[in-house]
Design a protein that fits this description.
Enoyl-CoA hydratase; 2-enoyl-CoA Hydratase, Chain A, domain 1; 12 helices; ClpP/crotonase-like_dom_sf; Enoyl-CoA_hydra/iso; enoyl-CoA hydratase activity; alpha/beta; four-stranded mixed sheet
Length: 219
C-alpha cells in the first residue's frame, strides 16, 4: 500500500502546480492500493485560485496540468482510495470522483463547491453531471453537504477509520483489473476538455477576478 498525503497546510492543501506535479509523478505499478489523504484539518481547498488572476493563458496551462493528473489517477493500475480526514472544497471534492473508494473520517465533514460563489464553476462536476445524476449535482451546487449526506448520495462509500475501511474494500487482482474497473472508462468518455477552456476564459473576466481577489485577501 502507498499512502500519499496532501501536506501543503499553509495553502490548505490546494492543488497548486507543485502539488499537481508531485501527484502526477506517483507510480502505481506493482501496488495493490494507493490511498490519498491529508495533513491538517482540510482535505483540500481545491484549485489554486491565484492562477486565475494571471490571465487565461496561465489558467489554461494550469488546468491542462490538472487534467493530466486526472488522467494519471484514472490510469493507475492499483485500487485507489481518497481518505478525507478534513473538509473538501472545489476540486478537493471533484478529485474524489476519480478514485475507486471514498472514505470520510467523520459524518460531519463538509463537501463544498464554494468556487461557485466566486464565479468559478466546478468543471468536472459539469462534465460528469450525467454520471453523477441530477439530484446529486443539484445538491452539490446548492450548498455544502456533510459526509453523511454524501454517503446517502453514493459519493462516499464509508465513514470511519482508514483501517476499518481497508478491511472492507475489495482489492481487485491485477490480472482482472482493467476489466473490473470499466467504470473508469465510462468516466473518461465524459471528460470534455472544452469545459476547461471555458473555465480558463474566466481568468480574463474582471468580475470573476474581483471576486477571487477579495476572497484571497480574506483567506
Amino acid at each position: 500500500m502507498l499512502l500519499v498525503y496532501l501536506n501543503s497546510i499553509a495553502n490548505r492543501n490546494a492543488f497548486t502546480l507543485e502539488v499537481i506535479n508531485k501527484l502526477s509523478s506517483i507510480r502505481c505499478e506493482g501496488l495493490d492500493l494507493v490511498v490519498f489523504s491529508n495533513r491538517g484539518d482540510v482535505f483540500s481547498s481545491g484549485l489554486d485560485l491565484g492562477v486565475f488572476l494571471r490571465g487565461s493563458v496561465a489558467a489554461r496551462e494550469y488546468l491542462a496540468s490538472l487534467h493530466r493528473l486526472v488522467e494519471h489517477v484514472l490510469d493507475c493500475t492499483a485500487t485507489t482510495v481518497a481518505y478525507l480526514s478534513g473538509d473538501a472544497y472545489g476540486f478537493g471534492v471533484e478529485f474524489t470522483y476519480f478514485v475507486d473508494y471514498v472514505v470520510a473520517a467523520a459524518p460531519g465533514l463538509k463537501l463544498s463547491l464554494q468556487g461557485i460563489k466566486l464565479g468559478v464553476f466546478p468543471p468536472y462536476t459539469i462534465m460528469l453531471a450525467e454520471l453523477l445524476g441530477y439530484n446529486v449535482v443539484r445538491s452539490l451546487l446548492a450548498r455544502p453537504i456533510t459526509a453523511e449526506e454524501a454517503k446517502a448520495m453514493g459519493l462516499i462509500h464509508h465513514i470511519g477509520t482508514l483501517d476499518d475501511a481497508i478491511r472492507k474494500i475489495f482489492i481487485v487482482p491485477r490480472h482482472t483489473f482493467r476489466i473490473v474497473k470499466y467504470n473508469r472508462h465510462m468516466i473518461r468518455k465524459h471528460l470534455k476538455e472544452e469545459v476547461l477552456y471555458q473555465l480558463a476564459a474566466l481568468a480574463d473576466d474582471e468580475d470573476t477576478k474581483s471576486l477571487i481577489s477579495r476572497f484571497l485577501r480574506k483567506s
